[in-house]
Amino acid sequence: MGLVGSMNIPDNLLLKTYRDQPGLFLDRKSAREEAKELINRLDISTPGLSTAVQKLSGGNVQKVLLGREINLSPRVLITAYPVRGLDIGASMRIYEMLGEQKQKGVGVLFIGEDLDVLLALCDRIAVLSSGKLTAIVDSRFATKALLGMKMAGLTTDKEDAYA
């Protein structure tokens, strides 16, 4: 689930937890406290808690979204192009957040096309070619050349030994 641009950070945090709250009313105080903690921990630049998410920069929106999901203590995080359109600083922070989750034992499925990033962040890289899975490569043995061959649908026995 994404974010609702017209809603502020606390209300966007409630989108994933409101059903778990007892009673008829939402606990907005807890949501505000969680939002303050998220803003401080992830260095989210915002004029205030009541600011609509759509008024934030792309990097800050991504931090809110990823921070909300991380706060739910997931066992698996699925990300698709999580830094597309972001500046280098915001991109690095998002990559750090994903790396921290990986270190905590969270399974991170990272969908992307930047080979440098995939090689740096991933333990294994699944390669698709013409809509089909052509390889799953251990990143310790992967190179851009090998991944390029797999993306083109080419294979050799030598490279398959590392899959």
From TrEMBL:
GO MF assignments: ATP binding; hydrolase activity
EC number(s) per entry: 3.6.3.17
Keyword Kinase: no
Top EC class of this enzyme: hydrolase
SUPFAM superfamilies (UniProt xref): P-loop containing nucleoside triphosphate hydrolases
Keywords from the named record: ATP-binding, Hydrolase, Nucleotide-binding, Repeat, Transport
InterPro entries, alphabetized: ABC_carbohydrate_import_ATPase, P-loop_NTPase
Protein name: Galactose/methyl galactoside import ATP-binding protein MglA
Species, as recorded: bioreactor metagenome
Protein's gene: mglA_77
